[in-house]
Amino acid sequence: MKIIDFLKDYQMNTLINCIREQGPISRVELSRRLGIPQPTVTRMTEKLIQEQLVIENGLGNSSGGRRPVLLSINSTCFYSIGVAIGRSAVKMAITDLCGNMISYQTKETSNQESIIDIIDYIKDHIEKILVEEEIEPSKLLGIGVGIPGPINESSEGFITIPNFYDVRNVPLRRILQNAFSLPVILDVNANVAALAERWFGRGVRCNNFVYIMADAGIGSGIIINGELYRGGTGESGFIGHSTVDMFGEQCHCGNFGCLETFVSTTKVVMNVQKQLVMKGLKNSGENLTFDDIVHFLQIGSSITQNVVEEAGKFLGVGVANVISFFDPEMIIVGGRLVELGDLFIDSLRKVVQSHVIGYGGKSTPIIVSDFTDGVVLGAAALVIIEAFTYCMDNSKVYEN
Ligand SMILES: [Zn+2]
C-alpha cells in the first residue's frame, strides 16, 4: 500500500501507533513511553505533522512549566472503504482513519444474483459517495471486503464459497481490484468483525479475546497477542460448525448437529413460528421475520421469551467450549442475535458459569458489541491496519 511508506520504519511505526492508541498525547509522554530521546521524537512528529497524518490538538496538564501541546491522529487524512458482501445484503461504508463512518449504505440482495452485478452495484455506489462527501479518490487507502467463509483461495487467486452468488473458481480479489483500481483485502466476516472490536470497539485495550458473531450463522474471530489468529490454513473460528449432537439435524454444511442448527436468527424465527402455529395463534402460511421476534419480546410474549432463553443456552454451550479451549480475557458477542437483549445474553452467561470447569474461566467477562455493523467497520479496518502495520520486508531506516 503506497501511502505511508515511511510508516514501515520500525521506530516511526511504533510512534504513530502510540499516538493512535494513546492520543491526545504530548511529545514528552511519547518520549517517556517509547524510550526515544525527546529531540528525536520532535523531529519524527514534525514529519508526521508535515505529512498531515498527525495534528496538534490542544494542551495537556502542566507539570510545572508550560502546558505541553498534545498530538492526535488526523483522522481525515485518509479514508478506507469497508464492504460486507452477505448472502442476503450488501453493506458498505467509507470510514476515516479512526473508524468513524462517513457514509453507510445497505442493499438487500438475492443470492441468485451474479457476483459481477453485485460488484458493479458496489462500484457505482462508492463513486457516488465520494462525490457526495467530497472525498478525493487519492485519499482512499483501499477496500476491505468481508465475506462468508471459508475462503479457500488457490495460489492463482481463485476462490469457491459455498452458497454464495454462485462463486465457484472465481478470482474474486482480482475482479475487485480491477473494478476499483485500489488495493483490496478480503477476509472472513467474523474475523473482520473481531478486528473492528480490536481497533475501534470493546477490545481496544484487550490483547486476547474471542469475538462471537451470532447472526444467521455463528462464527468467531480469535485475537491472540493483539492480532487476529487465522489458523494454520486460514480456517480458524468456525464454531458454528462444531458438532453439538452428531445425531442431530443436518446442517447446510452437510454435517449433522452443528451448533448453528440449534441457534441462529433463522432458527429463533423458525422456533417461535412453530410454537405459535402449534398453539393455534398463527397460520402456518404467515412467515415471521427476525424484527417480529424482537417486537414480540418487547411486548412480553412468553412463547418468544422461552425460545430466546433456549437459544441463549445453546450459544452458551458454544461459548463455554471456546472459553475452555482458549481461556480468553473476554468474549465479545455481536451480530443480530444480541438484539434479543439481556434475556438472551444472561441465559448464555448462566450456561458458561455451569459448563466451564476452571474458576477463572467461569468469570470470563461476556460483553455485547457496541456495533450494529461490525463487519463493514472491520472490513474498513483491514485496510487501515495494513497501512499502520510495521512490515519487516518493507523496513527502511528513518533518517533523523
Ligand atoms: Zn455445519
Describe the structure.
The protein has 400 residues and is α/β, with parallel strands linked by helices. It folds into three domains: 5-74, Winged helix-like DNA-binding domain superfamily/Winged helix DNA-binding domain (Arc Repressor Mutant, subunit A, Orthogonal Bundle); 79-195 and 376-387, Nucleotidyltransferase, domain 5, CATH 3.30.420; 205-370, ATPase, nucleotide binding domain (Nucleotidyltransferase, domain 5, 2-Layer Sandwich), CATH 3.30.420.40. Helices cover 39% and strands 18% of the residues. The chain has twelve helices and 13 strands. Strands 6-5-4-7-8 form a five-stranded mixed beta sheet, with helices on both faces. A five-stranded mixed beta sheet has the order 11-10-9-12-13, with helices on both faces. A hairpin with a 4-residue loop joins strand 5 and strand 6. Helix 4 (115-132) packs parallel to helix 5. The chain is globular. Mean pLDDT is 89; it is low at 392-400.
